[in-house]
Design a protein that fits this description.
The structure holds two protein chains of two kinds. By secondary structure, chain A is an alpha/beta fold. Chain A contains five helices and eight strands. Helices cover about 35% and strands about 20% of the residues of chain B. In chain B, the strands form three sheets. In chain B, strands 1-10-9-2-3-4 form a six-stranded mixed sheet, covered by helices on one side. In chain B, strands 5-6 form a two-stranded antiparallel ribbon. In chain B, strands 7-8 form a two-stranded antiparallel ribbon. In chain B, a hairpin with a 3-residue loop joins strand 2 and strand 3. The chains are: A alpha/beta, B alpha/beta. Chains A and B meet through helix 2, strand 1 and helix 5 of A and helix 2, strand 1, helix 4 and strand 10 of B.
Chain lengths: ~180, ~190
């Protein structure tokens, strides 16, 4: 029987994609990823062991350093400097044994505005501070959150103002040799 | 003839249609979703840090991924250096009535006025000697042609409840053994 030309061109054959090799590749890839992936995501906070500067170095310094110090005490946190560069501040704990980390962070932002080029901070926790609180406080000392007000510093080379990206990232423990 | 009929019907049931094909599309969909999830959460970490069962690490906002180094794990039960238990704490009298970490060093484990942990110091010195020997044998040299200096980096993993007093002893001991940089490890906070 004769068909119309348009009907003749029609192909009724179904094309089926062979998915088996793709499936094999995906199963292999998933197996590889599951085998090599790390389910425990660890981060670190680096701190050097403090070294006493020599007398020669101290004489070379034209002006006294800031030596910003945060002392974690049993009931409060004290922010101070041995060279009277700013007014010391005491922040009481919110709960027993739990320092007010947001309050400490805000106080340090105000100090950072006064000394934008300073990066070092001395941390002196008391002996009973838990590792959990130590890490929380160190986070509060180091990072600038997205919600924090912007702090700018002058770049002496370019003459432009640059946004400060970290608060006091260089943490040094100040009482490693102490007993308190 | 009921028996005869049943055999015939069983034969019919066994017949398999030659055109039968497994529907793989749905399975492909599931696998693609799993693959995307795994690729999203995959982190190519280069370190081989391990933890101990029961260790409760704090959470940190830090974004620094620690490179491989020697590590010490401190739990309320003891200290583990590179998979070897080197210090076993003793429980204090308060531990029976409190959930806090009530642990103490054995008197023989400490010296230098209670500041240095003797078994840890020995283990660190041993590890340092080994590292320096490997560096001396390595072809990697500095500008003067000397073996690369010992880095002296120690990663510290501690339980949430461990006190700074213990961490301080660890740092002091490590410093006396020539380790000058410490990395405090914590779990990454979900952003």
């Amino acid at each position: 029987m004769l068909k119309r030309p348009s009907a003749r061109r029609k192909t009724t054959r179904e094309i089926q994609l062979n998915l088996v090799p793709i499936l094999d590749a995906m199963v292999t890839l998933i197996g590889f990823l599951l085998f090599t992936m790390s389910f425990l995501s660890l981060v670190s906070i680096e701190t050097p062991f403090p070294i006493a500067s020599s007398e020669i170095n101290q004489k070379k310094l034209k002006e006294k350093p800031l030596q910003l110090t945060v002392s974690l005490r049993e009931n409060d946190v004290r922010i101070w400097t041995p060279f009277d560069k700013f007014e010391p501040k005491t922040i009481p704990y919110l709960e027993e044994g739990k320092p007010d980390v947001p309050g400490l962070h805000l106080a340090l932002i105000e100090i950072k505005k006064l000394f934008p080029t300073e990066t070092q901070i001395v941390l002196a926790p008391y002996a009973g501070t838990s590792y959990d609180i130590l890490i929380a406080v160190m986070d509060g000392l180091r990072a600038i959150e997205k919600t924090d007000p912007p702090i700018f510093m002058d770049n002496k080379e370019t003459g432009n103002q640059e946004l400060v990206k970290a608060l006091f990232p260089d943490i040094v423990f100040g009482n490693l040799l102490g007993d308190s | 003839m009921p028996f005869y009929r049943s055999i015939r019907s069983r034969k019919k049931r066994r017949k398999i249609n030659g055109d039968f094909e497994l529907q793989l599309t749905a399975m492909m969909d599931i696998l693609v979703i799993i693959l995307v999830f795994l690729l999203k959460s995959y982190s190519a970490m280069t370190n081989s840090f391990t933890t101990l069962p029961g260790l409760k690490l704090p959470v940190s906002a830090s974004m620094d991924i620690p490179p491989d180094s020697l590590q010490i794990i401190v739990t309320p039960e003891g200290m583990t250096f590179e998979s070897d238990r080197i210090v076993q704490f003793v429980k204090t009298a308060d531990s029976a009535v409190s959930d806090d970490a009530n642990y103490a060093f054995k008197p023989n484990d400490l010296d230098e006025g209670g500041r240095r942990i003797v078994p840890l110091y020995d283990a660190l010195i041993k590890a340092r000697d080994k590292a320096e020997l490997l560096r001396a044998k390595s072809r990697a040299r500095d500008e003067k042609g000397e073996p690369l200096p010992f880095e002296g980096i120690l990663a510290i993993q501690a339980d949430k409840a461990i006190h700074y007093e213990t961490v301080r002893k660890v740092m002091y001991t490590a410093a006396t053994a020539g380790y000058r940089v410490f990395r405090f490890l914590a779990l990454k906070r979900d952003s």
